[in-house]
Amino acid sequence: MSSAETLREARDDAHPNPAETAPDPAAGETAPRGIPDATVARLPVYLRALAQLSAGGTVTVSSGELAEAAGVGPAQLRKDLSLLGSYGTRGVGYDVAHLRFEVARALGEAEEWPVVIVGLGNLGTALANYSGFRSRGFRVVGLVDPDPALVGRRIHGLAITDLRDLEDLLARTGAVIGVVATPSEAAQDVTDRLVRRGVTSILNFAPVPLAVPDGVHVRKVDLGQELQILAYHEHRRAEDGGTRAGPAAGPGTIEPVDAGDPNPVPVPAGAPARALAHSAGHTEDED
Ligand SMILES: NC(=O)c1ccc[n+]([C@@H]2O[C@H](COP(=O)([O-])OP(=O)(O)OC[C@H]3O[C@@H](n4cnc5c(N)ncnc54)[C@H](O)[C@@H]3O)[C@@H](O)[C@H]2O)c1
Hints:
seven-stranded mixed beta sheet; 3 domains; binds nicotinamide-adenine-dinucleotide; Rossmann fold; alpha/beta; 287 residues
């Protein structure tokens, strides 16, 4: 049977009401996750179409375009994808890399979120060596750095890729989460490149704010900020107990946190002046 016939048959088996999004037992056999078999039969076709779009550099796709590429009706496609929990964004469409991962996961081909780490210095290497990601459903599929001394080196069997090949790596792996562990001056450029190729979630360690389009999530990690918070509690404890727990000389002038930082560290009232002054000049060296 040709794939067009398979699709037509699958379409005939599907729910009569395209607006309906909940799995319908009356539609016949259902896969273990509650997706009707007729939909499951179409998923490989969607996956193939998405892989082609991704290889061609398409980042977002409308339901109409994807439906055409897959040879199904747009309403059918929307209904199928809604069963996976993917609804797309009005006026934007579907994120190709993310949807590709969702469809692959529904088919049991991808059980973990693919993550790429950019910047394999002290921090990136430590993250790449961390074995705890996998047990939480993340798989590091790419390590990227421009340093020729690092390119080709392996961490847990995964070779470090040259930054020049970032786009190829993203197309090949379908990574949707990017970890930015580059020097701050490189972070925005790296982020732009990640986002252009379908990465929709960024974990940013570089001490700079990142500009990203709507729909892309950025989480900033700042270990210095965490230490400041601990220092604040130490200070409070010392005040309550009447003894100083740390080296700070007591409350003083509180310096504003880095004026250029649009995600400023909340300054706890009464925090030790020294700790805060340190944070105000937050630089890479201090990390
Ligand atoms: N948020 C935190 O808590 C925290 C903690 C430690 C470090 N940091 C920050 O993380 C970043 C990395 O720190 P580190 O100690 O690993 O630095 P590092 O100098 O050891 O490593 C930086 C790596 O980035 C690579 N690099 C340079 N330009 C690049 C580019 N354009 N694209 C990709 N990679 C590039 C370098 O080759 C190097 O391997 C820095 O921005 C640092 O300030 C943040």
